Amino acid sequence: MAAITPSDNVVAADAAAHAPAAAAPAKRSFRSFIWDTDTHLKTPEERRLLRKLDSAILTVGCLGFFMKYLDQGNLANAYVSGLQEDLHMYGNQYTYATSVYTVAYAVMQIPSTLIIQRVPPRLWLTAMEVGWGIWTFAQAGMHTTGQLYAFRFLVGLFESSFFPAMLYLLGTWYTKTETAKRIALFHMTAPLGTAFGGYMQAAVYNNLDGVHGLAGWRWLYIVCGSMTVPVGIATFFLLPDTPFRTRAWYLTPAERELAIARVNREGKAAPAKINLAMFKRVLSSWKWYLFTLGYVLYGESCGGNGYFGIWLKAEGFSVAKRNLIPTGTALISGSCVVLWGFLSDYTGSRFAFVLIPLILTLLPNGILAFWSSNIHFLEFAFLTVNIHLMTAVYYTWANEVCAADNEQRAVVISSMNGFQYAVAAWLPIVIFPQTTAPTFRRGFPTTFGLVIASIFAVLAIQYMIVRDRKRAAAEAERRPSTDSEDGELSREQAIVPGKDEKVQV
């Protein structure tokens, strides 16, 4: 089969620009179908560079994000495995503990992506990972809810930099035909970390509960902390920072130059000054408002899954099953999110691959909103309401649309996640009070409405992208013909005269 995909149309115009100069294979390789659709257009040198980047960035990113979600989610596992009774938690104290973490996590989202514009990312992220590993380990010794709140705050504060910084770096190093699948692989480790946490807690509870006088949930924190610190240390040696200032030991000088050439070919801006003018520029664009709003609405609509274990406990399921059954969501999400990212890169489409999952998630949210009396329907809804099918593609979309302004891209990406967590810090307290468990008659109808609102936000984003593209094309037609010697506007981007900005669709 030698069909030409939409992605081929995007990359064909750039094929001659691949450096160093070499004859690209005329025939599509098998790798072009299962990995990057433009692999057959890349030189051997570029393919070698990508193999090195994948081995380093994806290894560090996936392991770190796996540990981040393992450490973030262990409270839910510990809570249903004896922590509630040992710390004498009652009322809404569990919700308060999750909210304290969320507040801390939200605070450092935007600062972290700006900090790594000046501080090498490998140094910053190493310090953050080792820090949250230490505080995770420390939770094994807590005896009061006050200590729980303090430790959860510190874990959230140190974890907050990892996700936005890695998304920024992935969007910096990779091209349009490469990004979505890699962000999907990175994001896949989040549900895997959640699932592994359930299996780990079940194993720890069955095998270590009572060993040396420690409860099983305390051993969970000891094991998680001991796993996190070595991963943080590995980040120091493997993460290549950014193409603009990488000194990675495994990249040759020629490969560093090639990385810069790839960035320039994609129209990605180099870091600039961080000042008030930069913030004014970012906040005067619709991109910050709509991308952030859309993600906040979508993220909050997934909140129902966090109460799956509480519903299982109310239904009388055993401790082991309370930890194991919710892992089904993670297993489904882990496989589907990667497939979705591959398909998005293969077709070159972002909008459709964001909109379709939002429409599909109306079903599980609707079941929970109207609270079916059928236990199997409810279990299906809890398992599928938080699959995160569109997350990787959504972040890829934002990375591409903001590519021409490095600081705007950094702020938009971090704002999406940061504001989502900021809202999550207080919204569950209002709509998911523990006193209304397990039906949560305010919470689930609210999340159903949030899905509908997020669909309208995504439609608005696409409208603005198309509008900007038409304006850029019309402006280009008014320019003298001598100004267009660099080539025609591609389907993916157009240069707006008078502005160093690319509009991407």
Automatic annotation (TrEMBL):
Keywords: Membrane, Transmembrane, Transmembrane helix, Transport. The chain crosses the membrane at residues 94-116, 148-171, 183-205, 217-239, 288-312, 324-343, 350-371, 377-398, 410-432, 444-466. GO terms for molecular function: transmembrane transporter activity. It comes from the Eukaryota. One of its GO terms (cellular component) is membrane. It holds the Pfam family MFS_1. It is found in: Membrane. The keyword Transcription does not apply. Its main location: membrane. InterPro entries: MFS, MFS_dom, MFS_trans_sf. It is a multi-pass membrane protein. Residues 474-505 are annotated as: Disordered. Residues 57-471 form the Major facilitator superfamily (MFS) profile domain. Belongs to the major facilitator superfamily. Allantoate permease family. PANTHER family: PERMEASE-RELATED, TRANSPORTER LIZ1_SEO1, PUTATIVE (AFU_ORTHOLOGUE AFUA_3G00980)-RELATED. This is MFS transporter, ACS family, pantothenate transporter. It comes from Sporothrix schenckii 1099-18.
